[in-house]
Write a structure and sequence with these properties.
Blueprint lengths: L7 H13 L64 H14 L2 H7 L3 H6 L9 E2 L3 E2 L5 E6 L4 E7 L1 H5 L5 E8 L8 H14 L2 H7 L2 H10 L9 E4 L4 E7 L5 E7 H5 L6 E7 L7 H13 L3 H7 L2 H11 L7 E9 L2 E8 L5 E7 H5 L6 E7 L1
Helix pairs in contact: 1-2, 6-7, 10-11
């Protein structure tokens, strides 16, 4: 597919700058070739071709345009380039879009620069404001429709001297745009979780929200959510998932509408923890303890349970926990874990019905034995 060109604004700027460099007196003139004439003979009659002259099938002769009369190759004519740094940079970017290797090499001789220009010229570039450095070079920023950023640094001194004027180029991915509505903000957060884009998640969500992702990112969620506002300015954006599971994303509406970072407060599933047995449920709680993550611990234990564990064992994490016992007591199961490092024990009481419903806070009681 042929790469698209720079925006019309950029191209028009380049053309206007180039035209401004030529005055009316300097405008190029085109000389017409002389008209063909017939040469009269001495009698005034025109000379006609001799039809009786035999013809031969001689091979046509062609001249090699790359060689002169001496047999040496001629240099191709140099492309006229603007001397204005901005226009010069625009031409360079357009040459990259067009993958014009000859023009790129004429404008930038550094192999490091040319290596970046060997593929993908981008499209839809829009130029920003140029800045002039202490060394006199001019840096021109560009951005495109695909969240890419390009910087071209040119040397006016080298341009005036007829040398390659592009002295540095950088191409990088630009910052992700932050949505400006609670609904779009929540959708962007959910999509970033689904694609594993940790950098974008960190721009959009609080630590609590990011810690929640491991619980629900394996589910497939609808692409749009329905929102409602709580009294404290928090928007709850709801996404429907598989098997009637619901994800509720809590968004600070004021921050979201200001396109500020960290507007997602939390994301919770209703009745939607992954399917797991009693032992896996309690193991997830203990692993969160070992990682020093009370936020994830709260998915599996009640607030009282988490407060009791953190109050005695802290949030430093670590340890070498293993399950040492499982006892069934009607609609509850007691699971015991021991830490080989500290010697501490956890006796967790689990509600069977809560775990079977994939719901939160299934660990309803705890005994900590230091």
């Amino acid at each position: 597919m042929k790469p698209s060109r720079l925006t019309a604004v950029l191209a028009a700027t380049t053309l206007a700058t180039a035209l401004a460099a030529c005055g009316a007196e300097d405008a190029p003139t085109v000389e017409e070739p002389p008209a063909a004439t017939q040469t009269p003979d001495d009698t005034g009659a025109t000379t006609a071709p001799d039809d009786t002259t035999p013809t031969t099938d001689a091979a046509p002769t062609t001249e090699d345009p790359g060689e002169d009369d001496t047999g040496q190759e001629e240099e191709p004519p140099a492309t006229d380039l603007p001397t204005d740094p901005t226009a010069y940079s625009d031409v360079f970017v357009q040459a990259w879009v067009d993958q014009d290797e000859g023009l790129l090499e004429q404008m930038a001789s550094d192999p490091v620069i040319l290596e970046q220009m060997t593929h993908w010229g981008g499209h839809g570039w829009t130029r920003g404001e140029p800045t002039t450095g202490e060394d006199g070079t001019v840096t021109l920023p560009y951005s495109d429709e695909q969240n890419m950023e390009l910087e071209v640094r040119v040397s006016p001194e080298q341009i005036e001297a007829g040398a390659p004027g592009v002295v540095a180029v950088s191409v990088r991915e630009g910052p992700y745009p932050i949505p400006s509505s609670a609904e779009d903000y929540a959708a962007a957060f959910v999509n970033a979780a689904g694609t594993g884009d940790e950098e974008y998640l960190e721009r959009l969500g609080s630590d609590t929200a990011i810690n929640s992702v491991d619980v629900w990112d394996d589910f497939v969620w609808g692409t749009s959510g329905v929102s409602e506002d709580l009294e404290d300015g928090v928007a709850v954006v709801t996404f429907a998932g598989e098997d009637d599971v619901v994800l509720r994303v809590l968004v600070d509406r004021e921050l979201a509408e200001a396109a500020a970072p960290d507007a997602v407060i939390n994301a919770l599933m209703d009745g939607g923890l992954p399917e797991m047995g009693i032992e896996d449920y309690t193991l997830a709680f203990v692993l969160a303890l070992a990682e020093g993550d009370p936020v994830v611990m709260r998915y599996y234990g009640t607030e009282e349970v988490v407060d009791a564990v953190v109050g005695q064992l802290g949030t430093d994490g670590g340890g070498d926990w293993s399950r040492t016992g499982v006892e069934e007591h009607g609609d509850q199961v007691v699971v015991t874990y021991a830490d080989a490092v500290s010697g501490a024990e956890l006796v967790l009481t689990v509600d069977v019905e809560t775990v079977a419903a994939h719901d939160y806070e299934g660990i309803v009681a705890v005994e900590v034995r230091p």
